[in-house]
């Protein structure tokens, strides 16, 4: 699409005044395009029009605060601008407004993981897992992959142990997998003992 190509070109060349005009014209044609409206604030910010940027973002959130997409757009805009505290804050407001405690938790977890903020990555992965227990294999794989980083191991252990009471079956299985991965086999076995090893299903879980 010509618009996307030109937008990408202006962004790469840091030609922000031209980019601002382009996005504004596009938004005038497509006023329901929330992505473009969020980007309009982003480019205002890059043009040092901080007040205009804030006004756009506040208006976007105020008018469309019942949409998960609004919070996703704003979170990624703030991340691109290295406004991490604002990204975190808008996600927290979204979780409260939409009554969705794990809103964008997977997105945040991956962001933190890629930037080696391991304690926050573990927290968000676990938040997603507790609220989406059917995704336990995916989250377990991601947390165990993160544990390959020596700096992450202590954070992971502390976080997962602190969450056992939130969903004992799911989290103890994760703890056991973590200890197995780190070759602490007796501690892994202790987690399965805590869950019980009385039925065939329990034995399959252990094996």
Q: Can you describe this structure?
A:
By secondary structure, this protein is mostly helical. Helix content is 77%, strand content 0%. Helix 2 packs antiparallel against helix 3, helix 7 runs antiparallel to helix 8 and helix 11 packs antiparallel against helix 12. It is elongated, with a radius of gyration of 22 Å. The C terminus is likely disordered.
Rg (C-alpha, Å): 22 Å
Give the uncertain stretches in residue-range form: 202-207
What fraction of residues sit in β-strands?
A: under 5%
Categorize the overall geometry.
elongated
Reported for the largest beta sheet, the result is:
none
Q: What labels would you give this structure?
A:
207 residues; mainly alpha
Describe what is shown at a glance.
The chain is mainly alpha-helical and 207 residues long.
Sequence-ordered SSE layout with sheet pairings:
Layout: H1 2-12, H2 16-29, H3 34-46, H4 50-63, H5 68-80, H6 84-98, H7 105-114, H8 118-131, H9 136-146, H10 150-162, H11 168-181, H12 185-195, H13 200-206
Helix pairs in contact: 1-2, 2-3, 3-4, 3-5, 5-6, 7-8, 8-9, 8-10, 9-11, 11-12
């Amino acid at each position: 699409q010509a618009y996307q190509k030109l937008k990408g070109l202006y962004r790469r060349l840091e030609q922000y005044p031209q980019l601002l005009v382009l996005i504004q014209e596009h938004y005038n044609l497509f006023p329901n395009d929330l992505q473009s409206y969020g980007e309009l604030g982003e480019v205002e910010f890059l043009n040092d029009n901080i007040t205009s940027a804030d006004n756009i973002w506040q208006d976007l959130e105020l008018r469309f605060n019942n949409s998960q997409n609004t919070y996703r757009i704003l979170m990624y805009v703030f991340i691109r601008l290295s406004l991490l505290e604002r990204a975190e804050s808008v996600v927290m407001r979204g979780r409260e407004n939409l009554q969705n405690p794990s809103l964008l938790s997977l997105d945040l977890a991956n962001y933190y993981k890629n930037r080696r903020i391991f304690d926050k990555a573990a927290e968000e992965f676990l938040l997603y897992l507790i609220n989406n227990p059917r995704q336990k294999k995916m989250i377990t794989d991601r947390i165990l992959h993160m544990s390959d980083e020596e700096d992450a191991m202590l954070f992971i252990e502390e976080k997962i142990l602190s969450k056992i009471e939130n969903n004992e079956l799911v989290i103890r299985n994760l703890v056991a997998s973590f200890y197995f991965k780190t070759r602490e086999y007796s501690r892994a076995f202790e987690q399965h003992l805590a869950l019980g090893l009385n039925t065939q299903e329990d034995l399959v879980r252990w094996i």
